[in-house]
Amino acid sequence: MDRWLARIIVAQDRWARPLGDFNHRWLRALFRPMPAIRDLLNGRWLGHPLHGVLTDAPIGILFLVIVLDVLDLRSAADVALVVGILTMLAAAVTGAADYSDTDGTARVRATVHSTLMVVALVVYVASLALRGSSAAGDDRAVAVWTSVVAFLILAAGAYVGGDVVYALGNMVSRHAFRGAGTKWIALEPAERDEAGDIPEGRPVKAKLGINTLALVREGDTVLALHDTCAHAGGPLSEGTIEDGCLVCPWHASKYRLTDGRARRGPTVYDQPAYEVRRTEAGGWEARRRPS
User: Fold this and answer.
1) CA-to-CA distance for 75 and 55, rounded, in angstroms?
2) Using an 8 Å Cβ cutoff, are 204 and 220 in contact?
3) Distance CA 26, CA 12 (A)
4) I need a surface site. Which of 48, 123, 132, 229 has the fewest CB within 10 A?
5) pLDDT tens-digit profile of 115-129?
6) DSSP class of 289
């Protein structure tokens, strides 16, 4: 079944890709001048994507609508439907903030996901309107079956949304499974200045065993973060320095150089930071700082 569903989702690329590019442009333009609002909606303050927290609420509430309809608790079902629609709107706003910094295949799949969710929302609003205007009998039955159809569309959208996260890793920390060893390892900068030192005042790429770091030398102090941005994998060594922080060149996530703490989204995760010291032979070695 998974291969059959995957083929159905991939078949939507023809319309989802151009629509996704269009939506990305206007959402990017909307959120870029409002970094504080974007950080709030991304969930940087929470340390967890806020959209993922909110999506469970409408799914649970709107399933409850079906249960209450089956039990013929009409007033309770109608109230639950109103609450479900409101939570869908809240999830949609946070999802739009994430979408504005989503690229590639994940954006195409997110477009399918969001389109299904918008269609479900419209059908739920139609069901609510029918409930408000209908008396007992056949009209009520139409309203109930409309909400059942909406839930099936909602479930399809949730499935595609899960694919965006679990199969494509969107909004998942790129360092979730990276160990934090305490062993000092030889550090190999990709660049050196005329004196054989690490160039000062700009990010420099370096190898630390199997890991790649972004180094910034300030006088005799060398600060280091993992080169792979926790948000979407951007190369921090190609970024810029701003107020003692390293800014990702892809989506402008901002990390404090001293400890890797996230200072600006769209990242909601901190960046692994490393200690660097001189060796007796005149080279460098590094190890990861404790979380």
Assistant:
1) 24
2) no
3) 21
4) 132
5) 999 999 999 999 999
6) P
**Residue 147 banded pLDDT, cuts 50, 70, 90:** very high
CA distance 32 to 23: 14
Q: Give the three-class secondary structure for 225.
A: strand
Report the mean per-residue pLDDT for the chain: 93
- At 191, list the tokens: 């660049």
Burial zone of 17 (CB within 10 Å; 0-12 exposed, 13-18 middle, 19+ buried): middle
Q: What is the DSSP letter of 238?
A: G
pLDDT digits (tens, 9 = 90+) for 17-57: 999 999 999 999 999 999 999 999 999 999 999 999 999 99
AA letter at 87: T
Q: Which of 238, 235, 225, 229 is nearest to 275 (CA)?
A: 225
Cβ-contact 139, 203 below 8 angstroms: no
Q: Phi/psi at 223 (nearest 5 deg)?
A: -100, 145
- 92 phi and psi angles, rounded to 5 deg: -65, -40
Cis peptide before 266 (omega within 30 of 0): yes
Cβ atoms of 96 and 104 closer than 8 Å: no
> Could you give the CA distance from residue 214 to residue 223 in angstroms, rounded to a whole number?
8
